[in-house]
Amino acid sequence: MHVPDGFIDAPVSAATGVVAAAAVAVSLRGARRELDERTAPLAGLVAAFIFAVQMLNFPVAAGTSGHLLGGALAAILVGPYTGVLCIAVVLLMQGILFADGGLTALGVNITVMGVVTAVVAYALFRALVKILPRGRRAITVASFVAALLSVPAAALAFTFLYWIGGTTDVSIGKVATAMVGVHILIGIGEAVITALTVGAVVAVRPDLVYGARDLRQKLKLRVNGELVDVPEAEPVPVAARSHRKLWITGLAASLVLAGFVSFYASANPDGLEKVAADKGIDAKAEEHASADSPLADYGVEGLEDARLSGGLAGVIGVGVTVVAGSAVFWSVRRRRGAEDVSPVSTSGV
Prior knowledge:
Helix content: 55-70%
Number of strands: 4
Order of helices and strands: HHEEHHHHHEEHHH
Number of domains: 1
């Protein structure tokens, strides 16, 4: 659902850019509360994984494909504020290096694909885990439903922006029907990927799933006929519960997906591209400002072998995203550490 330049007019694009900038600023502050020694190293990996999986378009209908948006996955794994930042990093890398998603539409894309999906998905996820029986199955089910509904929510958000700032005269009712219809199907794929990923992490390191942190049931003992909470054990030092193995495994999986599996992705247009072509939304689409990038369209300029070109571009994308994301999240984490240290006050004599 990467919106290109020219779909939304300049005033609405600028206004949405302000909204996106404000959301990123709020998320930078909120992420300080979410990131700790465990999640800070993994947040950059989550961004890189989302970048990789977004290269894997899957068929959803005749002549149409879809790909992961990632907001739900990021929000559940590392927190809603950090999740918005993950998607923002991915979209920035895609727009600048790969000419995917317009640069003037960057605010639109961050708002639709990042803010809307993360907020809607995390709110639904938290509501569901509170009413479902505690356990891993509840987390998986909640992840599935939250991810599924976050995609048509993003489609509606785009439709609203197109209604107030679209550059072509197209019936908004037809746009809404087409967008929601195809993105419900795409949402099923999003839900499967999100549930499988969250379930896999919960199975090996449930302490690293932000959305499940407070779901562990406290042990109770019966004392004098009454049940009392068992005092919590001292937290295990981070060094003793290294996340290095999970980080390496996740990075390796991302590199394989982007560098090899992506070659077999569907070549059909995604949901937005298909609707835009069918309804005439793309009549005033503009050429991407980074169209001459050596990595434009997820290929390496000068390499004739399509498999090698696409695979190398994917590996470069994963590498750049994990470095950029890790730098952002470690910076946020260090800022939190600095704020946690209270300055020593001195009084005059």
